[in-house]
Amino acid sequence: MKLLFIHADSISFEARSPAVKSPSPLTEDTAKGEAKEALVVFFSVEEEDVNDRETIVRKAVEAIADVLGQVKAERVVLYPYAHLSNRLAKPEAAKELGNELREAAQALPVPVSAAPFGYYKAFTLKAKGHPLSELSRTITLEGVPAPGKAAPLKESVAVAKEKELSRAWYILTPEGRLVPAEEYDMDKDLAFKTFFTYETKGTALGGEPPHVKMMREMELVDYEPGSDAGNFRWYPKGQLIKRLLEERISELMTDVGGMRVETPIMYDYEHPALKKYLDRFPARQYVVHSDEKDYFLRFAACFGQYLIFHDMVMGERDLPARLYELTHYSFRREQSGELSGLRRLRTFTMPDVHTLVADVKGAKEEFIRQFRTSKLWMEDLGFPYHVAIRFVRSFFDENREFAVELARIIGAPLLLEIWEERFFYFIMKSEFHSVDTQGRTAALSTVQIDVENAERFDLHYVGSDGTKKTPLLLHASLSGAIERNVYALLENEAAKIAKGGKGSWPFWLAPSQVRILPVSDAHNAGATAMAEKLEKETGARVDVDDRVEGIGRKIRDAEREWVPYIIVYGEKEAKGGDLAVRKRDGGQVTMTHEQLIKEIVDRQGKRPLMRMTLPRGLASRPIFRG
Hints:
By secondary structure, the protein is α+β, with helices and mostly antiparallel strands.
């Protein structure tokens, strides 16, 4: 906070016109004012001040008291003055902190008044001429960065409160047994034990996670040094995998009735409904300043979809109503120490669906539908996962059989966290977790039952009786951030490799699904013709290693890329004979052309097909890794 002290013979002011969207309300007493023999305190609230308002206010009052004691003024006038700083807090936060300053200053031994916040004001000031008549102070917090550097991130109120909540951990089996976690024998499932340990204690190994090296060596994705930390560049192979994941989750969302929309990436801090939400979950946004207003970059599709729902006309028969968006750009200003490869980013792709339902019965039915879809997604990825369900105690007690049904759907024990009271907006949520090589968990898919935001954003439908009713709201990201799925895929394969196994892609995600290796330059044309024919018949991505390399080197390189099918092409293949196929998951076999086609089509199933954007021939491909 910046303070400028003027010991004045007199000051008078008059508010003329609003300078911000939500200025302080004017009354006859505050619209204009005057004072004599006053210490005028011009102040600017800066962006980092909101990280600890109590400390800033206390220090500011102490500074005012100090100067007041020196100049012996008869009264204090607080005067909001934005021009003292170029690092101003958001207007609403500045207004609230100014109000707190005025209230705290009432403890001073002289009368205290204040000019109104948020107005262009005319003022007349006559300063005294002694050495102490003009002073300035800067009020800071411990550890606040120097001007021009980002303010430290403050933990959200909700996250801080979560740490204080009384909770209990249980294991719920598909048979309906609810066992306190400390009494459950986890030694028979060490992977589940690792999951439980991280969720309850947060303990994990240190060091760089192996997927970072893998994503670079395989030319998938890398850090972007020209951007903010936590932002990445995607190379053609990685971008293909990312697009396939995006297309698949969008197909699944269409299957469950998601109506696809698109919403802005930035929103007004001062929008009344959004402000209430941000006041509760602050401090992890990027800020954009435009036309004297501050906007925040979205961290999910919630806001845009809420505002669409608000303007929709819906009757009870229109429910459930589901809006879906694949947000290619969601932003969360995670702390730099939390950034870790693709596990935690500052810019990410988040498929989001929000669903309105009429009541708790409808919420549970929709929850089950989306929970099953989450399971389908995890099956498409093909690696082990664990499920956690988090309940508010009262809702769990009333819906225990509902929780057992979720355990039956998974067919494995669930980790239950029971909160004794609700502080977040939801009364329950599910999370499908992957566990990485360092023992860290990462939530991929989630579904939540929200009991706050429909009312907060004035979402409603017309009931069968013709009256306006407030629905319940479900949040879901049935894949979670797409980038985190790539992280989970690589980490799971790294774990297999560490145990002596082979890394592999789910077939539908492999950048090169079939690679044909001509034994000499003379066979390049025939191999290319075969690749084109096979791709036309199956839709699979088929490339040709036409480099001037020995066949052994070509096989090793294809193995390093986890290519599912490797075919050596020589004279026999040129004459239409059976194919010698090296299968990633099954050794070397002999197959007819027709058998290969059938197996590829069966493995691909109904998952999306996309072409590779790299040249078919490896000899024409550049190297992307540095």
